Amino acid sequence: MEITRFAPSPNGSLHLGHAYAAIVAHDIAMARGGQFIVRLEDIDGARSRPELATEFAEDLAWLGLEWDAVPAQSTRLASYADAAERLRAAGVLYPCTCTRAEIAAAATVHGPEGPVYPGTCRGRSVDPTGAAWRLDVAKAMELAGPLSWEDELASIQRARPDLLGDVVLVRKDAPASYHLAATLDDAADGVTLVTRGRDLFAASHVHRLLQHLLDLPVPRWHHNPLLLDESGEKLAKRRGSTSLADRRKAGEDGAALAQALREQRFPAGISLG
Ligand code: GLU
Prior knowledge:
Blueprint: E1 3-6, H1 16-31, E2 35-38, H2 52-62, E3 68-69, H3 77-89, E4 93-96, H4 100-106, E5 110-111, E6 114-115, E7 132-135, H5 137-144, E8 148-151, E9 155-158, E10 168-170, H6 178-188, E11 193-197, H7 201-213, E12 220-224, E13 227-228, H8 244-249, H9 254-262, E14 271-272
Parallel strand pairs: 1-2, 2-3, 11-12
Antiparallel strand pairs: 4-7, 5-6, 7-10, 8-9, 13-14
Pfam families: tRNA-synt_1c (PF00749)
Organism: Tsuneonella flava
Protein name: tRNA glutamyl-Q(34) synthetase GluQRS
């Protein structure tokens, strides 16, 4: 059975881009007689606003979607710690105490998600207390050998986790980074098709490697195109994209909006990238 997902982080209200991604994921599951699940990615301590869980559920229901809720990430911390321990035991994690500013100053390569970590702490002896833990991607790729993965829209990909460099898997302030938590959760939730926006395409290279290292089942992916604003930038709440909650509270018809998004009829100034 096909299982798709929508995994919002409660650090800001949902906007049209989220609605589009949720509708795509929902509709694929329904068309295939599958299941659509919603998971709250709420381990971003300082930025998480628990009250948004209710708002998100109201938004999705307003759009006319039905879903099965699975446990939020904050209830799964033990599984992240276990996986990190396995990766440490396999010798593919190292502690890192670099600050963002130090990384920005030392980085020479810019990857799909910004400066690529220049490997400053790799091979150094670093006090692990309070450190972040990074994936030694070269070592992990050597252990894994060549890997590939399949995106429904972009076809077969050779895994290139090196494009993102030695990503953080255990944060200084949280027991997992997005990469580790989402990969483990998609496996635990039985997700067969990882549905999300194209902005996370590069992350899937890393997730494929983690699946190998942690003996997890390998899903397929569907990275939907993003909704862009007038300046060609992806929609973002901080740039003032109207939230779904604001539209809902203003009395807009959610089912009609969902239908317009399905038919790619977007509000003025918004286009599909
Ligand atoms: N939690 C992420 C976000 O809200 C999405 C992660 C995913 O779909 O894998 O941007």
